[in-house]
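Hey,
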Amino acid sequence: MKIIIPVDFSDNSLNALDFAVALAGKKDGEIILVHVIEAVYDFASQASIAMDNMYKDAESHMAETLKKYQDEDLKIRTVIKEGTASISITRIARDLDATLIVMGTQGVSGIAAALIGSTTINVIKESSVPVLVVPAEANALEIKKVALALEFANHEDKFIDWVITMSQRWERGLEFVHVQTSLDVKEAPGIHKLEDYLTIHHPGLPVKIHTFYAKTPVEGLDQFLEENEYVILVMCHEHKNLWDQILSRSQTIKMVFHSKVPLLVMV
């Protein structure tokens, strides 16, 4: 299991690192710490000095961070790169054939949330690798289970096996969540299809499916989380073009901004 951890050495990013180390365990896990230095475009001489200083600072912080985990039986290496954070992170994850990106986040609002987005949101939009978003208050040792939220859409089928494998690796229970937003639409066919799939491909796997009725998927998931605090919530995100993102905000992206539990986004 190869995990990419973007770090800016803030408390949030270092908490995400602690979270990833706890999940990766000692089962052939490898962690790659990635720090991206945003390019400085100013007077050439000043820019060169500034970049040199930022590299030195990053190397110093990386060394201090590695000391904390030197006794861990886990392979950890570092990458310091110049560029745009989201582009660099997703490219490194792709080139290294990473299993997962784990990163910390904190809420943003207003125009920044609606149109520009944080680095975390941009990584989700650009990544071809699943992204685990870890809020500041999350503690991996408290996590009891993984909950996969499904709309029973065709694009979700390919993610089920991956999530089952990860939940077993992390030694956490797995449950499924469906939010019904209209009483006129029956969810039974989708549930039966899921049950049949699990029976055929994962015989013996305990199956627990929660159904919540709400006006929106986010409201339904909030109901689930009120009853299930120590959980990693898994959601599937379809990449959309910019116009679609502005006209119709993704339910997954909405959850990223206010979720108090770790959110694993499948892309």
